[in-house]
Amino acid sequence: MKMTQEDKIAYHLDTNNALDRVTELVHTRLVDCGWRDQVRLACRKAISDSGDRIPSVDELINNITGNARGMVPDSVKKELLHELEKILVNVDKVAH
Amino acid sequence: MKVVWRTAAAVEYFGRSEAAAVCMQVSAVEIEQEVRLCTSSTVQRRGGKRGRFEMMAADEPQQAFTHDDDFHDIVNDKDTLRRATERFLVNMIDELTLGIIFDTHRKYKTRAFDLDGDGSPCNDIGNDTSVDIFGQHNMKKTQECECPNCDRAVVAARFAPHLEACLGMGRSRSRNASRRIANNNSNNNNKDRDSNMYSELPSDDEFDDSGDKRRKKKHRNGNKKGKGTPKKLISETEPIETTTVDIEGDEDGDVSLKDFLQDNSNHSSPVDVSAPATPNSNKSKKDKNKNKKNKRDRTSPSTSLE
């Protein structure tokens, strides 16, 4: 089974009990910057625009996922990337 | 070897395509190759059907070592680390987005909310005063009545007690009410108090009817208590017959006691009574205090006569 690099990162974080911490960190940052509320509003708008018929999950995913990535503020993204790199370096130091 | 037999077991249990789905990203071809290897060599298949395909866990020592090396290589190279971290973050954001989409879709599917306006389903209650935060209507509508005496809007459940207090039928607070009423009536009508409907109420100078009621209550209570302790009953009945002092109305009690003492003594003038330095007033005060103390002692349930 070939693992991608991000899968390897996830695997190593999981084995070192850091994945939960990283997930919580990302989640907290995204909530604080209002990204989650924006995505939620986008979902509601997509549903209301469709009229009486509620769109399927697949349709919502196709419509919203792409936009959701761009909704993350650049500053938050940079900060998260920086912190993730720090954590990965520490995990590597501990492992070796 | 463990990887081989577990893969074969997965193929046996799930079938080829399903085993691939369970394995996640493992192609059916690879599984077939594994199975051929498995059958060609004499590999003992352990146990029955094993439901899980645990490739990573099965090959722990060897693959973990390679993963560590790979991870180390990723971390050491800055560009690789940056790109891998970015992809990892994007995956995480996608997962969160999926969670939000599933949650929103489920809410709208299960409850079919009205989407007019920006308000969320939970906030539709909003400014509606007849509905509380749980969306329940206030079934008990509070009916309000207007008091004929003070013209206040009173809740129906509290109307009777309010009326009792307002009209002076109740306890100590009613004395203020009755005084107020009496003053109002004297100002308004300029008639005798006797002709007034409220004249039936006891004045502050006279013995308090509520005190009588209280005495009766005490008497009743005394009877109840007296079944077990007849001595107490006797002692409790004695003050009831003789004393007239009302404990609750402290201000009024002073006045009534003073008047009472004046009437009994007939020696001192009102001026002397009011003066604090006179011996008679001191005596009266002392008597008053004594009476009060005695009364308290007698009426307190914890006292013993022995």
UniProtKB/TrEMBL annotation, chain A:
Localization per record: Nucleus, Nucleoplasm
Family matches, as InterPro entries: TF_ENY2 (IPR018783), TF_EnY2_sf (IPR038212)
Gene3D superfamilies, A to Z: 1.10.246.140
Keywords: Activator, Chromatin regulator, mRNA transport, Nucleus, Protein transport, Transcription, Transcription regulation, Translocation, Transport
Quaternary structure and partners: Component of the nuclear pore complex (NPC)-associated TREX-2 complex (transcription and export complex 2). Component of the SAGA transcription coactivator-HAT complex. Within the SAGA complex, participates to a subcomplex of SAGA called the DUB module (deubiquitination module).
HAMAP family in UniProt: ENY2_Sus1
Family as reported in the entry's similarity comment: Belongs to the ENY2 family.
Cited function: Involved in mRNA export coupled transcription activation by association with both the TREX-2 and the SAGA complexes. The transcription regulatory histone acetylation (HAT) complex SAGA is a multiprotein complex that activates transcription by remodeling chromatin and mediating histone acetylation and deubiquitination. Within the SAGA complex, participates to a subcomplex that specifically deubiquitinates histones. The SAGA complex is recruited to specific gene promoters by activators, where it is required for transcription.
Protein name: Enhancer of yellow 2 transcription factor
UniProtKB/TrEMBL annotation, chain B:
Location within or outside the cell: Nucleus
Pfam family, one: Sgf11
UniProt keyword annotations, A-Z: Activator, Chromatin regulator, Metal-binding, Nucleus, Transcription, Transcription regulation, Zinc, Zinc-finger
Compositional bias segments (type: Basic residues): 213-230, 283-296
Main localization, broad class: nucleus
Zn-finger region bounds: SGF11-type: 145-166
Region (Disordered): 172-306
Domain of life (superkingdom): Eukaryota
UniProt xrefs under InterPro entries: SAGA_su_Sgf11 (IPR013246), SGF11 (IPR051078)
Leader sequence residues: none
Comp. bias regions, Low complexity: 179-189
Described function: Component of the transcription regulatory histone acetylation (HAT) complex SAGA, a multiprotein complex that activates transcription by remodeling chromatin and mediating histone acetylation and deubiquitination. Within the SAGA complex, participates in a subcomplex that specifically deubiquitinates histone H2B. The SAGA complex is recruited to specific gene promoters by activators, where it is required for transcription.
Subunit structure comment from the entry: Component of some SAGA transcription coactivator-HAT complexes. Within the SAGA complex, participates to a subcomplex of SAGA called the DUB module (deubiquitination module).
Domain observations: The C-terminal SGF11-type zinc-finger domain forms part of the 'catalytic lobe' of the SAGA deubiquitination module.
The family this protein is said to belong to: Belongs to the SGF11 family.
Protein name according to UniProt: SAGA-associated factor 11 homolog
Native source organism of the sequence: Nicrophorus vespilloides
